[in-house]
Please model this.
Amino acid sequence: MNKYILIDHTADIGIDVFGASLQELFVNAAFALFDIITDLSKTEDKIAYKISVSGIDREQLLVSWLSELLYLHDVKNLLFKDFCIEGITDNQLNATVWGEAFREDKHVIKTEIKAVTYHCLSIIQEDHHWKARVIFDI
Amino acid sequence: MTDDKYKIQKIDDYRWRIPREGKMHVEGIVYADEHMLKEIQKDESLQQVINVACLPGIIRHSLAMPDIHWGYGFPIGGVAAFDVDEGVVSPGGVGYDINCGVRLLRTGLHRIEIINKLESLVNTLFANIPSGVGSHRRDLKLSQQEEKNVLRDGARWAVSQGYGTKEDLEYIEEKGCIRGADPELVSDRALERGRTQLGTLGSGNHFVEVGYVSEIYDEEIARVLGLERDGITIVVHTGSRGLGYQVCDDFLKVMINASRKYNIELSDRQLCCAPVNSQEGKEYLAAMACAANYAFANRQVITHWVRESFGGALHISPKESQISLVYDVGHNIAKFEEHIVGGEKRRLCVHRKGATRAFPPHHPNIPDVYKSVGQPVLIPGDMGRCSYVLVGTEKAYTDTFGSTCHGAGRVMSRGQATRSTKGRNIAEELKAKGILVRADSRATLVEEVSEAYKDVTEVVGVVEHAGISKKIVQLKPMCVIKG
Model:
């Protein structure tokens, strides 16, 4: 099964993300974010970061998680490739993420993402199938 | 497909009404011609006009300009004014790129003087004005204190540091500094994102474009604006960068809680808001003003480097290039303004998201030299066609809270644009049309290809026919740098 698919949104870009668990859903959403930003085949796991975010519910937690990664990308010019979620509830997430710093001679930036929006945000669970929709502002 | 969801009635050839139904407090008014309306109805943007009409304290209408397209929460191309006592302020009604806007510069140069030097000019601009991930000028470093001065003083800070002249400030909306900015309300994260991004263009649809006046529709007003046929112009389109995105992000979280606290029902979380007069509302507006000031300073610093680039590439002095501001105005902002409602003067909080302020002649907030003609408005088109300079009108003041369109508006998603241009070399195609382009990323060029946008001429035609702006000149591009 696909980790995610792109959905067309006139001005912005959206994703439908899939996972067999809430954990996998969040991992795949993070993967999608950086897969849109860069060519991940050229990115290596050189630096690890510990991340801890919270939210009032699962949906906001997803936005907080992706926004945290985007913030690190913007401020420290980091590209992340691998994500390990060590603990997740509806309101709290702890993770370790791996990636490396952007280098002009090695990496490409396909799309600059400005922000993770709350627009059309949803997380749906049907048995072991989780699906989320997120729209990015670009 | 969308017809069954809402009614739409024709008012005249350029205006459409969405009647008040259900939870709408006011009706929706859409500025578009029939053909455009059909395009607009293909996505969810009119539903978004309706959603905005349901917010508390909205005054008169939920408005959509002809360049409307599907945004997040509020539509892009939307205008909504709220009562300061009963109404709300919403970060989603401003957008992430707070005070993203356009600055138009004129020069003393004629098209034939630069036509053979475009290559050098575009390369110099591209080298001097940072764009792309992590790039910034080493000669512009801000301490946190200095950054807070930027947030408080806006373009005035830039001028005090030698980026441009005091005269420049006269031709910026609010003279380049929105009052009420409180840097202490801006998070450390936002400050961190902003510290290295001042004087950078960013990517996507942001650009610096050198062009010339290709058509004049009103000689007298063009003269007042200092625009002559074949005169070289420069357009700077950028905003508040990561600092603005972070301010929006931070306050969306605040507003999601505030919407619950004040029992405001939301059809989309991105519409979250708080009463204008609440603590949350006031704090957002004070932080938003900081980001707006950062954007004014950003365009001011870039203007300085445009001036240096012209000098360096063309080997001419500032006296010869005579680069000066026509005007600088934002198109993602919420502002307190006075408007006449039901015959009474009222103070309103006007949200413009992808819409431009277009004040009429004799309005107190426009520069003295433009008093007789109205506020200049620059409407950039896509990189292959043209842009327009308009002025605001009395009708805009009475009908649209002094607002007009802001650009062409996308018709294709970025994915569609990429698919439809497969195998084409956009830079070469533009070069064949006499337009040189430098972009940090090749993806930007295909995503920003002409046909991904509505024809700006049609968009401008609607606002002119509807009487909310007057067309003065057309500009054609010669060279463009993009992020």
User: Anything to note?
Assistant: Chain A has one domain: 4-137. Residues 4-137 of chain A form a domain with the Archease, Possible Chaperone; Chain: A; domain 1 fold (CATH 3.55.10.10). Helices of chain A lie at 22-37, 58-76. The CA atoms of residues 26 and 137 of chain A lie 19 Å apart.
